[in-house]
Amino acid sequence: MQTASDRHEYPAHWEADVVLRDGGTARIRPITVDDAERLVSFYEQVSAESKYYRFFAPYPRLSARDVHRFTHHDFVDRVGLAATIGGEFIATVRYDRIGADGMPASAPSDEAEVAFLVQDAHQGRGVASALLEHIAAVARERGIRRFAAEVLPANSKMIKVFTDAGYQQKRSFEDGVVRLELDLEPTDRSLAVQRAREQRAEARSVQRLLAPGSVAVIGAGRTPGGVGRSVLDNLRDGGYTGRLYAVNKAFEGDRKELDGVPAHRSIREIPEPVDLAVVAVPAEDAPEVVAECGEHGVQGLVVISAGYAESGPDGRERQRDLLRLVRSYGMRIIGPNAFGIINTSPDVRLNASLAPEMPRTGRIGLFAQSGAIGIALLSRLHRRGGGVTGVTGVSTFVSSGNRADVSGNDVLQYWYEDPDTDVALMYLETIGSPRKFNRLARRTAAAKPLVVVQGARHGGAPQGHAVRATRLPHATVSALLRQAGVIRVDTITELVDAGLLLARQPLPAGPRVAILGNSESLGLLTYDACLTEGLRPLPPLDLTTAASPEDFHRALTTALTDDACDAVVVTAIPTVGEASAGDAALAQALRSAAAAAPAKPVLVVHVELGGLAEALSAAASTSPQGRRADVPPPVELPPTTVQPPSDARLIPAYPAAERAVRALAEAVRYAQWRRDTAEPGKVPEYDDIDEKGAAALIGRLLARGQGLTLGSDETCDLLTRYGIHVRRALPAPTSDAAARAALAIGYPVALKATAPHLRHRADLGGVRLDLAGEEQLRRAYAELTELFGKPEELRPVVQGMAPRGVDTLVRAVIDPAAGAVLSFGLAGAASQLLDDMAHRLIPVTDRDAGSLVRSIRTAPLLFGWRGSAPVDTPALEELMLRVSRLVADHPEVVAVTLEPVVVSPRGLSVLGASVRLAPPPARGDLGPRTLPPY
Q: How far out from the chain centre does Cα 794 lie?
């Protein structure tokens, strides 16, 4: 694209799609010589005032010289970027490198002038802010550290773009012009600004899809049946409050409506704007439909049609082409191969899905990557019997299908500030950006519960999903999600169980559980389940099978007023000859007692009490508005009982004690996480850390190659700069060398084989400890070589003995998808066999380090188990904090392993260490906002 005089190839990696403030999208890309006509056309559509603000003088048109200058760049000292929609420019930005005298310059000059121009019709959409993020990232890549901009005082919008960006800046005023200087090094504030803009934009993009003012179903058949016609019927029958249209190119020319819905052969024929199009046409016809939607100004698409990435390589390429076309028009897409979306808000009542009935309005948000699981979720929430009582309804539902564009991250951005959603339930088969998901999940979980079940845990991603691979095992990813406050469950049943509890009950203040009911056996089962889940149950109170609703009311009231109780589980079995009115009376008694103590959660375990389940959920179930014939009607309350309002304190009921207690345990752990995060820890500073010296050493070592595992001396040198001291070990290629090494170190010593197959395998006999003299050392040396082979195969070393203690392992790795992860466990085969490791994201705080030590199942060994002396866990925590600092400060450190770390009652000893360096991986979460690539 560029001439021979240009110094760099076209930088394709600068191309990106971004979500704008109003939820639409734009394409940002470098400007090339081929853009001359686009630039002229763009400039002609800019107002005279905007041109004046850009050039400080009337400038009605661009000269040929201007066009050449603004389209010819070397992509180093002169760079121009354009924001495009439909292939046409809507805004431009450029920088020119300058020297100290303000004249054009080249490197090493690190300053550049920057200027923007935004088409008037697109001002206020956040285009300039997005362009500033991207041009700043380009400038940093090319060695530019500062931007200078001159702006007329009246151009308040552009001044605000610069001042609101969060960069460190200087501002001056001379000769009637405001001069701004921006330091382009990212700051905490600039990153916070960027993420706040990202949240608003992505949330708005989802909101436009879920609350459209008008919907067109493209592919609605003339006769009942078929995907398109089903969606159209569901929208109409669900009471959609906006304008609805049926579109099918096969309609007769004189057809005006389809079952009362205005009908058109093409979306172009619709005289009013269309906000959302539901596409249900064969995949080969989709490009034409998408182009028509884009030209008509449609804001978003839900593509129900299959035949894309889930069908194989050809379909994957078809999906890329579809997404490329959708984004070129500034639209967003749910799907393809999606089940659809639902919004139960009375102001919208959108059922743009294949679900035949609209769920009842409620406070639970649902997201599913699988249509089948989406159906199962809605069905379980709809059902009144056979398990969990429906105690609340659905706010919004999104089934993303192949999630080519809109993903769970986008929906989380929407739910975070959605006043209609109190609990978020997600079924995920893949996490496209674990680092971003963890960040969004942590923020969301601090405001409302987020419950997640992961599918495809033991296999590859579904064919339709293109995700970046992670080297972390599923257990590690799950641990990191829990660290972010996510309530991780294993099944759809557990997902619904936890969601129903969290939707209508307060969070428990602690793990103490009171148990009461009319069945001693069911109470004991509940007691055992509480112990299994790590709760602290009080002795069950047996009310006997003769207990009346009044007895339940008194017992529950007493339990809820007991300061030694944080939650109550009520167990109930039917009484012989009990009438349905008794179920209603019991439900009323429980609700009444619970309402008097709103700070404590109450759960019910019932056995075959359909009437009680109905009565407990009363008027706020998730059952569809129209009841199925196979579902019995709810029990009528007696005349003396008042039907509760929809926002009443409703009690979830479970058919098994284990399910109720498991849901309660998740609520207890989540509540504790909320309390812990209310007082976040800190990353401590250590005076003895030599960050600059470590950086210089890493730079020299990496100069040797792209990636390398450091030798013993280099590893010790680097770790020492962070206050991590490895106990000295000397090679012993012969018995005489071993004796000399022992004399240099001082007896007693250890003799260890360090060959890969023997390293850290004391169980194989490759280690001899407490060798007090040369005779013992030579005898041990002879035994090792006799058992395992020649010294060159064993690679023996001599090391000074460390104080007795507990052997542990500290490891840090940088995963390409999840980021930097710190792991801890006890060293040895038993921990490896049980996979007993705990994990935290780096940087680790002092609170994280303390919880990391206590998170493994074998942690009691560190704290004086069975009368042993407790070890120095504060020293262990400090070691982990130092490793975290090393990896956080130097992303070139891609792996650190300290094994074993012997923790004694006083202090610790690092006996083995390895470090791997590599060029730092790209950090997409620290760069400018972008949508995932095709």
A: 45
Q: Is 60 exceeded by the pLDDT of residue 889? A: yes
The answer, yes or no, to whether residue 876 has pLDDT greater than 60, is yes
Whole-number pLDDT of residue 13: 92
Residue 377, C-beta contacts closer than 8 angstroms, at least 6 positions apart: 366, 368, 397, 425, 427, 492, 495, 496
* CA–CA dist 449, 498 (Å, integer): 10
Q: What is the reported pTM?
A: 0.85
Six-digit token pair at 806?
């507990």
Q: Between the ranges 165-169, 632-636, 752-756, 877-881, where is the mean pLDDT highest?
A: 877-881
For the chain, what percent of residues have pLDDT higher than 70?
90
CA angle at 52 for the pair 50 and 58, rounded to the nearest 5°: 130
At residue 236, the 3 state secondary structure works out as helix
Distance CA 401, CA 616 (A): 35
CA distances to 56, 57, 176, 727 from 153, in Å: 11, 14, 8, 64
What is the three-class DSSP state of 413?
helix
Q: For 83-104, what is the mean pLDDT?
A: 95
DSSP letter string, 621-640: ----SSPPTTSPPPPPPPTT
453, burial (CB in 10 Å: exposed 0-12, middle 13-18, buried 19+): buried
Which DSSP helix (H) or strand (E) runs through 172? Answer: strand 169-174
* Mean pLDDT (the chain, rounded): 88
* Helices within 618-706 (DSSP H only): 657-678, 691-702
How far is Cα 356 from Cα 359, in angstroms, rounded to an integer?
Answer: 10
Q: What are the backbone dihedrals phi and psi of residue 394, each rounded to the nearest 5 degrees, phi first?
A: -105, 135
